[in-house]
Amino acid sequence: MILKTNYETLKKAAVNNRRNLTLGFILALALLLRVLYVVNLAQTPPVQDSFEYDYYGARIASGAGYPTTLRGPIYPFSLGVLYFLYGHHYQLARFAQAIVSAFTCILIFFLARKVFSNLSAYLAALMSAFF
């Protein structure tokens, strides 16, 4: 009984290690693709919605407050905190978004695994890495 339990524990650990390595690869791929995209944007100023969010974040960082209820407050406040701590830089916000976006691949994996199968979860995480 003890040998069987140890074998099952080792087998489960091997499966978890393989899963973690695969998820690490998907996360690294997602982060690489997003960072390449952000670097490619370089000094392009924000336009449309991103301009408004940047404006609200800069207002919050300067202490002027949040001026509207037309947009949800979480993203402008997170931009405001970033801008307050590190200064007003477009690239900073884009890199922060790239990191958060890359980690959504992991969340998608666990959600898909819960609802569907392991294979579906890996495919969903991999597809979201390219999104």
Structural overview:
Helices cover 80% and strands 0% of the residues. It has helices at residues 2-41, 49-62, 74-86, 90-115, 118-129. The model has no long low-confidence stretch (mean pLDDT 84). The protein has 131 residues and is mainly alpha-helical. Helix 1 packs antiparallel against helix 4 and helix 4 (90-115) runs antiparallel to helix 5. The protein is built from five helices and no strands. The protein is elongated, with a radius of gyration of 20 Å.
Briefly summarize what is shown.
The protein has 131 residues and is an all-alpha fold.
Helix content: over 70%
N-to-C CA distance: 47 Å
Helices, by number, come to 5
Structural class: mainly alpha
- Mean of residue pLDDT values: 84
Percent in strands: under 5%
Shape: elongated
Topology, number of strands:
0
Could you list the spans in which at least 5 consecutive residues all have pLDDT below 50? none
Major pleated sheet: none
H/E topology pattern: HHHHH
The value of Rg in angstroms is: 20 Å
Instruction: Give the assembly state of these chains.
Output: single chain
